[in-house]
Amino acid sequence: IVKICPLFYGARALTPQTAETDAIRFLVGTQSLRYDNQIHIIDFDDENNIINKNVLLHQVGEIWHISTSPADKGVLATCYNKTSDTKVMTCAAVWRMPKELESGSHESPDDSSSNTQTLELLCHLDNTAHGNMACVMWEPMGDGKKIISLADNNILLWDLEESSAKAVLSSSAALEGKGQLKFTSGRWSPHHNCTQIATANDTTVRGWDIRSMRQIYCIENAHGQLVRDLDFNPNKQYYLASCGDDCKVKFWDTRNVTEPVKTLEEHSHW
Asked: What pTM was estimated for this model as a whole?
């Protein structure tokens, strides 16, 4: 049985709420140019096969990426479009949802829109010197105090201080090469004591050691077209999945990246 939860706007940003261990919960961020954007908190009651939804206002712009704290189920980060002086920038911020929504909802999808609440801004990730934000990653096994953002060709490691009300840039690295290099996505590995991340730019996948901010592997032409997203196998070290605009999903062993371990070609669309 496929359960459907209606959204009134388009959406491209989706994340599980990993700090929530008692419920099956996802957060979805909307993209609307005409109206205030929203974050939908989607709860799945697997015992009764019911989907419940709550809506939070995200008034600062279209949401292009969303991620949640691994330690605090009320805290999340978004990357969003912001227009100033006719220029569109993609910014990032850390937010807290209302306390009463942290533990889930029993609202029905039809009733929840009348109870819309607003997110509390905790801090901005200042990207004025680094470019457009592509994504925000939380340290997977951490206390929710370390995050990495990818902005244009920069990797930025932040420490969250004062109950996440302040973000301090602790280290950074820049992707160098010919042309205008820009990161499209990234993922923080839960293995190796959380010292490694993987990033995608154009058709290339790279691994980084965040202690030294140096590259540790590179998969050139990982896909025939743009690499859209990445993820690590949470149960098996060294294994990384990638997907691209070439409609393929590929699985890699990062110890030997000359060829993918497996390629799936069943998709007909990116």
From this structure: 0.88
